[in-house]
Amino acid sequence: MEFQKSQKCLDEAQIMIDNAGNDVENLIKGLKCHDVNFFIAGSKELQQERDVFAGVVSLLQTKWKPLGLDIYSYSYLNFPRDVTIKGHQEQYNNFIANHVNASVFILSGKAGDYTKMEFDVAFDNFIKKGTPKIFVYSLDNEDNECDSYIHTKMIEEKQYWIEYKNIQELRLLIERDLNNCLIDEFSKATDAFS
Question: Are 65 and 1 a contacting pair, CB within 8 Å?
Fold first, then answer.
C-alpha cells in the first residue's frame, strides 16, 4: 500500500516535470520570434564610438540568443545608398518610428541637422507610443561644446543625458543600458507569451 502511494507521488511528480519542460520549451520557441532593433545616430565622424556600439551589440547577441532574443544594430550604413524619391532620411525616420526598440545618440559637440531630426522622431514616438527607448551619451571634456538643441529638449522634458569621459566608459555605459533594455524586452516577450 505504501509502495503504491509512493509510486503515485512519483508518477505525479514526473508528469509535473514533463509539463514544466514543455512549458519552458514552448516559451523558448515563442521567444525565438522576438527581434530587438537598436539604432545608433550621431556624426559620421564618430566611427570609434560606432564601433564600440557594434561591439557591445555583438556581445549582447551572443548572450541573449539562447534566451530567444534576436538582436540587431542599425545605422545609416544599413540602408540603400541609391537615390530615393523622398531622400534617405525619410527611410531612417520611418525605421526609427516603427521598428526600433532603442535609439542611441552619441554626441561629441554640436549635433548635425540629421541627428537632430532622428532625435525628434525618436522622442516624438516615445511620447506617443512609449517606444523607442532613447539613450543620449555626450563626451564630457573641456573642448566639447555640448549640443544646445538636444540638451535643451532633454531638460524641457525633464530628462538627462549621460556624459562619458573616454571610450572605455562609453562601452560600459552602453552595455549596461542596452542590457537593461533587453531585460525589459525579454520580460515583455515572456508576459505576452504567458
Answer: no
